[in-house]
Please model this.
Amino acid sequence: MFEIVKKEWLHEVIFLIEIKAPQIAKKIRAGNFLVLRMREGAERLPITVAEFDRKKGTLTCIIQVIGQSTKLLSTLEKGDFIQDVVGPLGKPTEVEKYGIVGIVSGGLGIPLANLVAKEMKEAGNTVIGMVGARTEDLLVWEDEMSQYCEEMRYCTDDGSKGLKGFTTHLLENAIEELKKEGKKFDVIFTVGPTIMMKFVTQITKKHNIPTIASLNPIMVDGTGMCGACRVTIDGKIQFACVDGPEFDAHKVDFDELLNRLDQYKKYEKTALDKYNKEHGCGGKHK
Amino acid sequence: MTEEPKKRVHKRSEKTPKKTSMKEQKPMDRIKNYLEVPFGYTEAEAVLEAERCLHCRRAFCQEGCPVDINIPGFIDAILQKDFKNGIKIIKETNVLPAICGRVCPQESQCEAACLLGKKEGWEPVAIGRLERFLADWERERGRTTPEVAKSTGKKIAIVGSGPAGLVAAADLARLGHKVTLFEAFHKGGGVLIYGIPEFRLPKAILAEEIETLEQMGVEIKYNTVIGLTYSLDDLFEMGYDSIFLGTGAGLPRYLGIPGESLNGVYFANEFLTRANLMEAYKFPDGSDTPVNIGKKVVTIGAGNVAMDCARTALRLGAEKSYIVYRRSIAEAPARGEEIHHAQDEGVDFNCLSSPLGIMGDEKNNVIGLECQECELGEPDESGRCRPLPIDGACFDIECDTLIIAIGQRPNPLIARNTPELETHKWGGVIVNEETGETSIPGVYAGGDIVTGAATVILAMGAGRTAAIAMHEYVMNKK
Ligand SMILES: Cc1cc2nc3c(=O)[nH]c(=O)nc-3n(C[C@H](O)[C@H](O)[C@H](O)COP(=O)(O)OP(=O)(O)OC[C@H]3O[C@@H](n4cnc5c(N)ncnc54)[C@H](O)[C@@H]3O)c2cc1C
Ligand SMILES: Cc1cc2nc3c(=O)[nH]c(=O)nc-3n(C[C@H](O)[C@H](O)[C@H](O)COP(=O)(O)OP(=O)(O)OC[C@H]3O[C@@H](n4cnc5c(N)ncnc54)[C@H](O)[C@@H]3O)c2cc1C
Ligand code: SF4
Ligand code: SF4
Ligand code: FES
Model:
């Protein structure tokens, strides 16, 4: 059993939890993730660690309520327990001194990229953050990541903050501006919705910028035994939970990944409808 | 006792040629539930079956059992209706008889060696069913916790709670060591919990075994992935004197044909983990984990894993369940009983059919499998006849779920994070076969992680071998 020592709503559908898990906190690195199982009968839910405190032995996760499992997690409060927490899973990010590192993240991008930005900066890189969301409210936790970034660039679909448009526009602009100064990105790290990563990768391919994508396929065990998370990298099957979740983005078959993410649509709806019927609609204002 | 003890009869002429049949759920009923298929012998049936034994002077049956159970001894005890003694005899060498009696491939082990079955038209003594009978007899009467020796003050770490780890843990706990069992999953049992379905091995049996271990003082730490949560060095630093690796063969093999990542295509491990460990058969009431099951399900392979998938598919609501296998049924590696049960339940066997490619629609959903018809050629290295393609003979099977069940390789996680641990090219951990010792002093290994996918009883045997060597190692360690 793992205690939730802090819980905070950052937005109507986004919340933060701090979980007490000293051994995992000791080992966690940027790029790693956890698998949570809230109670008997619950799904195994993969979640990234956004921040940690080795001294306190805690892990901070930021979660967006999407379907049944994330909703269930959102009902737990400070002092409640999560039945199972496994980690640190996956390979840590390959952090080295690249030079100029661009981080392109969307959706719940900031929490997912926070530790990568931190470690990249600590390794002596100049980090430029390019983050986007549908609207300003969804850009949670920007102060955290700003600490590690030389510069933060924002975009929103509705123009409520930063550029009106997508992260791909931010990226293209940044590439052009650097070019004018005679510079270039040495590496791009991208995380967020798969469709966004696909388009980001098309741009970086065109400009020949090495790119790391943190993939988020559907997972079951998260330890490399089931193959649910398989992705095709350079024509070969790889398991994102143990061989990744970060891969050379130029080699990822994004279309296949997009398809595989939709496999359980009808079941997810069944589960969510049932949950809503029994527990109300959840979220911050349930 | 009111009855006379039974006499031992040595003559074949006084025996019946066929096994005493075991009652089971009817195929049309059982494919609608998840309950165990065979009911097990009653006392009378067990004694009747025990009467078939020839009481051979040389116990061929025992030679066929990988853990050397005194089979004539326990059969004799059944004959004398001394069931208590019978189970005691088994437990001298096999701590998990309720499991082995159900899942051991008896027809290639003890029962293959039984003299009674050596004559044309005769079946061997149903050793497995008798073993199961005794184990269940004991379970129904409430089992006792084995005695534990005085504490030695030594600490042992067991990694993986499959049959190899369970047996090593039990043996070492009994010798007085402080044993901690580390398991990556949220439940113990390894393949016994995530792979083998409830209708073949009720989970309650496993739960009891694990409870017994805990009563013996074994601490179980779930959700702990060794190699990630703790390294082997961490374990030594924490004061463990010796480590056993029983992490199994959990890495799915795949075919390398087009279409393996289409939606609706599963590796057996995922399909079974969803169905068993995550209990997807209860979705959405009681389990939040779904499994995508179509009307027509194809399973590729013919081992135990494949039979479990094909039969689970029926229980999850598939209208049609097919097996596609490239050799003939005689070559199929599954237990005979599983093949018969699958056939009775209406699983459609397409043997001598080799998969060429998986077909999908424009939305990337699987719609069928293209197969190549084969004929049997000369035996290959494995001793089984090699399937040879018949020119031009191809056919398609329509399906909306496809399961790849062609084997597993050793779990690579620990080796990957422990460079000093020597492994074969194919992934198996290299050990001294007599002791289970690996290339790292104090670290032992056994079960599927060493042999590649094998059997429950071999994994248990390996757990025991290592436990003996580990005991010696820690007791002699300064
Ligand atoms: C390595 C990894 C790290 C992640 N980190 C975070 C995180 O830090 N914060 C966070 O909010 N979310 C994170 N996710 C995504 C999170 O796991 C999914 O949102 C969650 O599984 C959805 O479950 P649900 O039952 O609430 O919704 P569901 O009803 O199961 O899913 C709704 C939709 O979400 C998508 N989805 C389903 N399962 C997954 C999955 N395992 N991964 C990605 N998308 C999925 C599908 O497109 C699906 O149609 C991560 C996923 C992975 C694989
Ligand atoms: C579906 C199926 C049906 C089968 N049917 C039969 C049958 O009828 N008869 C028969 O004899 N055999 C059968 N087998 C084979 C048999 O189950 C295996 O040979 C046996 O379970 C191997 O035991 P093991 O202890 O070596 O490993 P496993 O049973 O595989 O257990 C390994 C355990 O280690 C855990 N683990 C792995 N890595 C780590 C890590 N890094 N840290 C912590 N824990 C870890 C795993 O989660 C797992 O619980 C079947 C196998 C399958 C998959
Ligand atoms: S353990 Fe297996 S091989 Fe040995 S007697 Fe029992 S069923 Fe036969
Ligand atoms: S070989 Fe068969 S008949 Fe002979 S003792 Fe063993 S079980 Fe009995
Ligand atoms: S989630 Fe099962 S292998 Fe990756």
